[in-house]
Write a structure and sequence with these properties.
The protein has 4 helices and no strands. With 92 residues, the chain is mainly alpha-helical. The protein has 2 domains: 38 residues; 32 residues, no CATH class. The protein is elongated and about 60 Å long.
Length: 92
């Protein structure tokens, strides 16, 4: 398993014994330790979750509206300016 450094942090969870047995069986089937299996699955899922949260998928209609707005010479409305300010404040 590839890591970003020496493992020093600890993550502890409690799960039902039947779930633990299933995880142990899956890890063994792949020739991994439970620790390596758990880390690889958690990291993969976390990356996918973050990728989904950080991307925006637009419908064709919404994409067309967005592009039209970007191409427009009109000034943003007051509501859009306030929305931009709220967004900027949240990103700090």
């Amino acid at each position: 398993m590839i890591t970003d450094g020496i493992p020093t942090a600890r993550l502890e969870i409690r799960i039902a014994s039947d779930l633990k047995a299933m995880i142990e069986k899956a890890a063994a089937a792949l020739g991994l330790t439970v620790t390596d299996y758990s880390i690889s699955r958690l990291v993969e899922t976390a990356r996918n979750d973050l990728r989904q949260c950080e991307s925006v998928v637009l419908s064709d209609r919404d994409r067309d509206i967005f592009v039209a707005l970007l191409s427009s010479d009109e000034e943003p409305s007051e509501a859009m300016k306030r929305a931009a300010e709220r967004y900027k404040a949240r990103r700090v």
